[in-house]
């Protein structure tokens, strides 16, 4: 009983990238436990999805054809039933918004420990060590547990699995209790259209909570104007209503890939970094030399933005 | 209807800090109301102001020190608070999702609310899992990462939006009783007024032990232990410009000229 069961993620007819990443994470872990890697594809065009994630290192794929889109009730019930059937040592799910909408319920239901947002996994005998971050990425920790467990894995942390696999694909006949599905999805909506498309910008002047107050925003706008750049931001600025939603960079905002990204008073939380790590050149202006943004910045100024930003603007006026 | 909000006091860390074993040394820490819970409290208070909720109760697992944070939630409009603490919780490094769920479950079963609001995650240990695990244990419906809630709750249904990745929102109807995990941006949390702060001092704050709740002490052990904490190894090859603001701004200006951003 040392197999790994990994569940894929998809939305609106497409597998999400994490579905290929979880194959790598699952294969690594199964190599350490000496077990097989089982994948599950739940809902949607399961056969096409199964063929697509049938990559090198997958031992078996189970399809659950119970609807089009994600439904946490279906996912929770199907995962629990697959667990009962396959008796894996570990269940992996993405730490996506949807992963977090069913994995904790499965853990509670099966009375298994859950560890979320893993960035590293290592197994030794019956023991599992999960590496994860705390305090918004300021520290890394290891957490240990014994026996079976559910782990959600951070997106974009493992490599995308490549290579064609030849795992058998089998339909799993889940017994879904429709009466227990008390949540109904009524639609999807894209947010954050509007005046500018920050994903098209060559240069972004991006502002975070370090700006402190809405009244301080003009210093950022003046810099952007001097550089002929576009203003974007981290989430709290949008949450506060200081900038419209279409300016938000990150996991739940836009993915941007400008030539130059200037992160001003932004700590570099993982959900922010998810949206901007593909930028060509990243410059960070932040008083905290240990802020996680420093790990991905190419250039940095460890100083007060209220001193640096006006001085920079002045250079071009 | 009655709304219960889970409220956590989280530790915030200074820029420079030291690690002591599996903890950040206490002199580098301060305490604050968890950012996500602040939005959850606000949502509950707005439902009360809209005449939907009759009572808003907060529940916190935390030592006596946490009462300053709990009073913040009361000052913002919650009616009363429950704080769970026990000698058995003293010195526990990490309360895992299962342990938190066990404790909160028994409070919620006693209180029997129609709606439970939790933050999406807590800013310190960021499990992001307690709300959904709780819902399962309570046999409540749920929705995770909610950034909009319709306040009419017509026919016992909460119409919510879940914020997915990439600027997409899912519209979902959830039958009550339910647990919703609340995302920042759903509302604009208020500051506590002076009047609110005064009133909060007089609002009931009930302290319960594990024994009072009928929770076995072994629950706090959890299944997950924290075994190490360290500063992440930086793979960074960042060039740091040193000097006064004029100098560093000058360096950055040169870079921007080199890159052709500005002439
Ligand atoms: C499900 C989910 C989805 C999310 N999606 C997103 C998303 O899409 N985008 C996003 O950005 N976040 C997102 N977040 C939030 C994310 O976790 C962080 O909370 C957020 O990115 C923090 O924003 P920040 O860096 O501006 O603020 P903080 O983390 O508060 O950082 C402020 C920084 O400013 C620095 N600073 C302070 N004063 C000054 C000064 N005077 N001069 C220079 N520097 C200063 C500080 O040192 C600090 O590093 C999401 C969270 C969750 C749970």
From TrEMBL, chain A:
Single annotated GO MF: electron transfer activity
An individual GO BP term: fatty acid beta-oxidation using acyl-CoA dehydrogenase
Pfam families named in the record: ETF (PF01012), ETF_alpha (PF00766)
Stretches assigned to the Electron transfer flavoprotein alpha/beta-subunit N-terminal domain: 4-185
SMART domains per the UniProt record, alphabetical: ETF
PANTHER family named in the record: ELECTRON TRANSFER FLAVOPROTEIN ALPHA, ELECTRON TRANSFER FLAVOPROTEIN SUBUNIT ALPHA, MITOCHONDRIAL
Family recorded in the similarity comment: Belongs to the ETF alpha-subunit/FixB family.
Protein name: Electron transfer flavoprotein subunit alpha
Native species: Natrarchaeobaculum aegyptiacum
UniProtKB/TrEMBL annotation, chain B:
Alphabetized Gene3D superfamilies for the sequence: HUPs
One GO molecular-function entry: electron transfer activity
Keywords: Electron transport, Transport
InterPro entries, sorted: ETF_a/b_N (IPR014730), ETF_b (IPR012255), ETF_beta_N (IPR033948), Rossmann-like_a/b/a_fold (IPR014729)
Residue intervals of the Electron transfer flavoprotein alpha/beta-subunit N-terminal domain: 21-217
Domain of life: Archaea
Pfam family, one: ETF
PANTHER family, A to Z: ELECTRON TRANSFER FLAVOPROTEIN BETA-SUBUNIT (PTHR21294), ELECTRON TRANSFER FLAVOPROTEIN SUBUNIT BETA (PTHR21294:SF8)
Family in the record: Belongs to the ETF beta-subunit/FixA family.
Protein name: Electron transfer flavoprotein subunit beta
Species, as recorded: Natrarchaeobaculum aegyptiacum
Lineage: Archaea, Methanobacteriati, Methanobacteriota, Stenosarchaea group, Halobacteria
């Amino acid at each position: 009983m040392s197999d790994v069961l990994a569940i894929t993620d998809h939305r609106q007819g497409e597998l999400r990238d994490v579905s290929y990443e979880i194959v790598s994470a699952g294969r690594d872990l199964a190599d350490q436990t000496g077990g097989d890697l089982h994948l599950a594809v739940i809902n949607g065009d399961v056969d096409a999805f199964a063929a697509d994630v049938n990559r090198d290192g997958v031992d078996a794929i189970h399809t659950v054809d119970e609807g089009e889109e994600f439904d946490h009730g279906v996912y929770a019930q199907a995962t629990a039933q697959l667990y009962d059937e396959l008796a894996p040592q570990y269940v992996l799910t993405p730490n996506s918004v949807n992963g977090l909408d069913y994995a904790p319920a499965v853990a509670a239901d099966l009375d298994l420990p859950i560890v979320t947002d893993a960035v590293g996994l290592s197994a030794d005998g019956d023991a599992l060590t999960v590496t994860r971050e705390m305090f918004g990425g300021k520290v890394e920790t290891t957490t240990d547990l014994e026996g079976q467990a559910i782990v959600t894995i951070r997106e974009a942390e493992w490599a995308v699995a490549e290579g064609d696999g030849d795992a058998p694909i089998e339909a799993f006949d889940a017994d879904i209790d429709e009466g227990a599905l008390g949540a109904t999805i009524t639609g999807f909506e894209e947010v954050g259209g509007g005046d500018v498309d920050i994903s098209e910008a060559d240069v972004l002047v991006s502002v975070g909570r370090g700006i402190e107050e809405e009244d301080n925003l003009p210093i950022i706008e003046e810099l952007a104007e001097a550089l002929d750049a576009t203003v974007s931001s981290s989430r709290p600025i949008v949450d506060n209503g200081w900038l419209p939603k279409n300016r938000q960079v990150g996991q739940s905002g836009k993915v941007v890939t400008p030539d130059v990204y200037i992160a001003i008073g932004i700590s570099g939380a993982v959900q922010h970094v998810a949206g901007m790590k593909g930028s060509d050149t990243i410059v960070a202006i932040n008083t905290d030399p240990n802020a996680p943004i420093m790990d991905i910045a190419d250039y940095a100024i460890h100083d007060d933005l209220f001193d640096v930003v006006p001085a920079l603007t002045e250079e071009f006026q | 209807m009655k709304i219960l909000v889970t409220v956590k006091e989280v530790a915030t860390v200074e820029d420079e800090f030291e690690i002591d074993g599996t903890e950040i040394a206490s002199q580098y820490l301060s305490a604050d109301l968890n950012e996500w819970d602040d939005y959850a409290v606000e949502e509950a208070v707005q439902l009360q102001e809209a005449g939907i909720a009759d009572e808003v109760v907060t529940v916190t697992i935390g030592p006596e020190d946490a009462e300053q944070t709990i009073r913040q939630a009361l000052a913002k409009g919650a009616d009363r608070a429950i704080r769970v603490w026990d000698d058995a919780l003293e010195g526990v490094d990490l309360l895992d999702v299962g342990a938190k769920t066990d404790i909160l479950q028994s409070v919620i079963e006693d209180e029997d609310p129609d709606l439970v609001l939790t933050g999406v995650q807590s800013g310190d240990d960021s499990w992001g899992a307690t709300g959904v695990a709780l819902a399962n244990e309570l046999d409540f419906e749920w929705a995770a990462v909610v950034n909009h809630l319709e306040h009419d709750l017509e026919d016992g249904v909460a119409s919510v939006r879940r914020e997915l990745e990439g600027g997409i929102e899912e519209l979902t109807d959830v039958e009550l009783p339910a647990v919703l995990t609340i995302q920042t941006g759903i509302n604009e949390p208020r500051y506590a007024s002076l009047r609110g702060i005064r009133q909060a001092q007089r609002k009931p704050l009930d302290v319960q032990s594990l024994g009072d709740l009928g929770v076995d002490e072994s629950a706090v052990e959890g299944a997950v232990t924290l075994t190490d904490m360290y500063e992440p190894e930086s793979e960074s090859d960042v060039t740091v410009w040193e000097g006064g603001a004029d100098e560093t701004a000058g360096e950055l200006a040169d870079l921007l000229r080199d890159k052709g951003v500005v002439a």
